[in-house]
Protein: 2-pyrone-4,6-dicarboxylate hydrolase
Organism: Methylobacterium indicum
Amino acid sequence: MSTMTRRDHLALLATGSVAAGFALGGTPAAAQAVRWSSGTEKPRIAVPANATDCHHHIYDARFPPAPAATLRPPDASIEDYRALQRRLGLTRNVVVQPSTYGTDNRLLVESVKAFGPSARGVAMLDASVTADELRRLDEAGIRGVRFGTRLPGGAPITDLEPVARKIADLGWHIQLVSEGEKIIELRDVLERLPVPVVFDHMGHLPEPAGPDHPGFRVIADLIATRGAWVKLTGAYILSKSGPPLYADRSRLARAFVALAPERLVWGSDWPHPTAPAEGKPDDAGLLDLLADWAPDPAVQAKILVSNPARLYGF
């Protein structure tokens, strides 16, 4: 016999409230539906002031995709994202360059400027980037460079070291989106970098291994010796158990919280470009996972507020 969760009850109440609104001649605006996000509820977790979404993207067909890019989602605009911010109660955000646009960072810079002082950005750059361009990007609010091995469209991974050397004086970081096995292969390179590494999506360590995967030890060592960071993002990407709780990813997330809560940040990964249009996660539910992964409100505040302030310079 199935049982209803509190979220199920709230969803039914929300549905009833929307229906009642129509019956009384009102509008369903309170439902707070947001493009590319399922669900309509606000998060249950107490969201602290200056809470930060450290990982989301903006897409706009005005800007051409990189020729090699295979991930080409529909538009997800600044105003769409602002609606998500209002729903979640977040006030700071980090726009991450997607593989779709490769090293053409024009939309990224435009977006960070439009969001204003409460936003930062992570670009994609190759080894040809000049000191003048880096200064321009720094003034625009860019604070890191993303490299990836999972999807085509960005700079080659061989450019990682030369780019890291060029950004070291700016106090930026390298953001890496890579599989657990590849992280093991890159260990020596990552240990040589003159800047910290930020691992996307909990290092993409696969299930069911999670924290037992040898890549976890590599990340843990880099946290201890090189000041690495981990993004508690993308729980839905490698989950085998699925929504709403993505419960199989909780063991990995809790392991990172137990290991180094001062080196963790959270992000939505909106608009969830690798998820099908009809299967987008509930972003309020993703934020609520923090209550399970890090039950202490003081730790939640670190992950949502003080850690991002240190990493991105808010």
Remarks:
- Strands lie at 52-56, 92-96, 119-123, 142-148, 173-177, 197-199, 229-232, 264-266.
